[in-house]
Amino acid sequence: MTVAEKAARARSASRIMASLSAEQKNHALGRIAAALRDRRTEIESANRSDREAAAREALAEPLAKRLTFEGDKLDQAAIGVESVAALEDPIGGVLGARELDEGLELFRVTVPIGVVGMVFESRPDALVQIASLCLKSGNAVLLKGGAEARNTNRALFTVISEAAGSAGLPDGWMALLESRDDVSEMLAQSDSIDLIIPRGSNEFVQSVMRRTTIPVLGHADGICHVYVDSDADPALAVPVVVDAKTQYPAVCNAAETLLVHADVAARVLPAIAEAMPAVELRACPRALALLPGAVEATESDWRAEYLDLILAVRVVDSADEAITHINRYGSHHTDAIVTANRTRALEFMQRVDSASVMWNCSTRFADGYRYGLGAEVGIATGKIHARGPVGLEGLVTYQWRLFGSGHVVSDYTGSEGRSFTHRIISVDR
Amino acid sequence: MTVAEKAARARSASRIMASLSAEQKNHALGRIAAALRDRRTEIESANRSDREAAAREALAEPLAKRLTFEGDKLDQAAIGVESVAALEDPIGGVLGARELDEGLELFRVTVPIGVVGMVFESRPDALVQIASLCLKSGNAVLLKGGAEARNTNRALFTVISEAAGSAGLPDGWMALLESRDDVSEMLAQSDSIDLIIPRGSNEFVQSVMRRTTIPVLGHADGICHVYVDSDADPALAVPVVVDAKTQYPAVCNAAETLLVHADVAARVLPAIAEAMPAVELRACPRALALLPGAVEATESDWRAEYLDLILAVRVVDSADEAITHINRYGSHHTDAIVTANRTRALEFMQRVDSASVMWNCSTRFADGYRYGLGAEVGIATGKIHARGPVGLEGLVTYQWRLFGSGHVVSDYTGSEGRSFTHRIISVDR
């Protein structure tokens, strides 16, 4: 079957997915969780083939490790599906209601987006998670995983689609793509696909955006900043900076640049350097004078996403200078201010143009799980549709539903025309 | 100044626009309304030049008429600016709040999108309206109007930007573009522009989407349907169909195709034909047998946006067939069902994949003013960000704001780690 045919089948299936009840969807999720456990041998054997191939091709150690999907990881994936089932149903919620006139009532109701195209990396648990989230939100989905996990993905796809089918889900609600050419073909299916969610490098996401007219929910770099203000308490600033940089440096919400106000630089910078000796500091000339172990930063350091134990450091003369630096060099992901001055914190949060802004806490909190979203579809650095950590609501749109009893527009025109009441109807949410 | 420079200036200005208070923005809108009235002679004289040029170039009558901007039209535009000032401020609203842990509180707050690129048609009042809506929502804007209205647009741009400047708005928050090359250059400024809103033909919107990686809030065809069900009351169906087709046929929410259930076709179709004798009917063979004055429809009629007194007519055997037809041939804009059967109506509304769905009322109600949105930024037929008639909320996104007191993620990891409370904080809205 071609990608165009898979996409057209997904479009048809999406019409049925949209009208499933919460019970039907949760029943299917239960079947999927059970099937993952029941058909463990089949999945683990497919995963072994992938890992053997990876060993033959001398795949880099971290990649090979992410490929592993057996034992505990498989159990965790099944529990993950059950926790998606336990989430509140995101479909059919009333976002607002308004009486336009007597007997003419307008409702704005949440509905699935329709067909989602997902491209994700080598980790096979991503397939399980994405399929569950799409099912829960009533969407059909085209999935393209990493080539290294081909056999595992095929096995998972078979197990999940058979379990879903046995629970009454329509054929074709989920389709597996396998090659880069498949992805290119998918990006051309603007009639059948409503949203593309690429997970991967910044370059990959940019290339997807250039190659499609379908909307893309994407994630660019995570160049996150911590600004330590003149009114910062060093006892609070040091642990926040250390956590933001070192708690998990390989992820997008880790800090890459530290900005310190000149008034506190002499007190704060040496303490930070001492608290995280393993971190390489790349400092502006003024910071360099206070940090004997640092190297001099170049212009490119302000735009670097190290994802490693490296931190760019710059001394600034005002919160204003910090804000300007962040808006200029940052990636609009997550940025923090440390200060005891509430007014300055609020101004920082308002003027920094990023998806998440933090006051006196670590940038590492910017995450769907920590934010309490229940599930994370991705992190978006664009501003349209969804921003920052995106939960199930990123897979949902709305529909206007107008209930009348023969109302026509011509009755509302001209000097004798009826007026609209436009009265808000309160709705239990 | 190049378009790239204008866009960069707009980006800088947008930082200031985002932190203006409701009072500052409304004060500026008041100044703009006053300036439109005070500098009437200047604006009307510019408009006269445009109309003289149009006459010399023998511009088509409807286009030339839309160009007129004097007297009453100018007064209406000034009143429009004042009514935008009277709307609720869309910025700084709390969409949700959650305690993550003691002293660690997360707020999701509405903020402006940033910089919007608007391309609109010949009507000069569009410039006034768009500038007001962007100002109200704290956005900077690049505006490209129709070439026929060049002098009027320049005059309006001067009057509005001077009035806004005198009220303290930052330089460059609004910029005027004039040529097609300017538009092409604008579409490349993905670093400085967050959203493109093109108003114009379907072909134009599609071409914009293909030429940019910036998100586009666009509007494709309006191929709207009315389905008259087997349980429809003819006394209600006829006026709804007549209104949907004839009340204003040149607009996107007018009906283009009528679907009628076979059980009621013999009663309903002749009555509809009689009620709107000026409408040309293009009918499927079964409808043709009931409509002596009709011509036979071809496949292309089901995909036609006539914007004229023409209606495609098809007899179907079930609501299911009607839904399938609409999802296949429609443009996901607005579709209506006429029936006395509530269950069937609800199923139709759920399964028809359109921005607006109507029960027992005219498709012509799908409009920002009639929906009570206060102002209409545009109508979107995509599903991402905003759908259907879009009010000020289409110019708004949100930001996550996390308030802590030294919280670090490392305290929440490992078997001894703290747990999140994830308690909803209720907020007055």
How far do the termini of chain A sit from each other?
A: 43 Å
Mean pLDDT of chain A: 94
β-strand amount of chain A: 15-25%
Q: What is the CATH C level class of the largest domain in chain A, in words?
A: Alpha Beta
Largest interface, with counts of residues having CB < 8 Å to the other chain, equals: A-B, 73 and 73 residues
Structural class of chain A: alpha/beta
The CATH topology name of the largest domain in chain A reads Aldehyde Dehydrogenase, Chain A, domain 1
Report the CATH superfamily of the largest domain in chain A.
Aldehyde Dehydrogenase, Chain A, domain 1
Q: Which sequence of strands runs across the widest sheet of chain A?
A: 10-9-11-8-7-12-13
Taking the sheet with the most strands of chain A, its summary is:
7 strands, parallel
Reported CATH architecture of the largest domain in chain A: 3-Layer(aba) Sandwich
Oligomerization state of this entry? homodimer
* Poorly predicted ranges of chain A: none
Number of helices of chain A: 14
